[in-house]
Amino acid sequence: MTTQTQSEQPRLTLYQFAASGNSRIVRIVLEEKGLSFKRVNIDVTKGENRTPEFLRLNPRGKVPVLVHGTAQGEVVLSESSVINEYLEEVFPNPPLMPAAPARRAHVRSLVYMFDTELSPTTGLLIIEKLLKKPEEQRADFVAERQKATREILARLSDMMSQGPFLAGDFSLADASYIPVLAVMAPCGIILEREFPKLAQWFAEVKKRPSFTASAH
Ligand SMILES: N[C@@H](CCC(=O)N[C@@H](CS)C(=O)NCC(=O)O)C(=O)O
Q1: Domain termination residue (choose one: 39, 57, 90)
Q2: If you measure from the C-alpha of residue 100 to the centroid of ligand 1, how many angstroms do you get, rounded to a whole number?
């Protein structure tokens, strides 16, 4: 539900790249919360994330970056999981975190596993399988990354609650995993065959309007 009417002055600006999974993680949460936001496209394939203007927003040169104009000044944030925690605190409805501390910690453990394990493991696998021509892909590298990815997905599947979502109700954890799990098939990992619980979860997240709205 992204509204970008001329008359509205969005207070939220997302510097992002349409094809970036990490940008989509934030787009999902903005859509789930029904928040209007302005998009500024930063084409990382053309080096637009390395301009002095962008580096002032994020010295690490990575998208996404969220800028929130507030009465106290601009809040500038990077790191998808940090941005999402901020959105949850500032715009708590509808909630994307459970109420009980133990369950909130579980959501954070899942997000941490994405940030520190799945994201770094799949990053180069996705580039190899989706962006390189078949004849340029390195079979050994692909096999090693697929194996490491499968180990993490097996653990994720074991950590999953009764469903329908990763930690019960739809949460920040689901937002983190959706973009990467959406491209597992072209990476050679078939959820339906190998991880039926995750395939069931994916079928549920695809039904949500935020899935389609956040795709680009
Ligand atoms: N952990 C960061 C990762 C951000 C990231 O790696 N973004 C990629 C796009 S998906 C990027 O900006 N890459 C450009 C570069 O590293 O030069 C997050 O979750 O936001």
Answers
A1: 90
A2: 31
Best residue among 45, 55, 63 to mutate for probing ligand 1's pocket (most ligand atoms within 8 Å of CB) is 63
Going by pLDDT thresholds of 50, 70 and 90, the confidence category of residue 8 is: very low
Q: What is the pLDDT of residues 133-151, one digit of tens each?
A: 999 999 999 999 999 999 9
Atom of ligand 1 nearest to the CA of 64: 20
Q: Do residues 85 and 113 share a domain? A: no
CA of 44 to the centre of ligand 1 (A): 9
**Ligand 1: which of 15, 22, 42, 49 to mutate, most ligand atoms within 8 Å of CB?**
22
Residues paired with residue 31 on neighbouring β-strands, in sequence order: none
Query: What pTM did the predictor assign?
Result: 0.94
| Domain count within the chain | 2
- C-alpha 154 to ligand 1 mean position (Å): 25
The answer to whether position 213 is within a domain reads no
Bridge partners, residue 42, by sequence: none
Q: pLDDT class for 2, splitting at 50, 70, 90?
A: very low
Q: Report if residue 159 sits inside a domain.
A: yes
Residue whose entry in the numeric block shows the structure tokens 């708590």: 92
The predicted pLDDT at position 11 comes to 93
> How would DSSP label each residue in 91-118?
S-SS--S-SSHHHHHHHHHHHHHIIIII
Q: Which residues contact 50 (CB under 8 A, 6 or more apart)?
A: 61
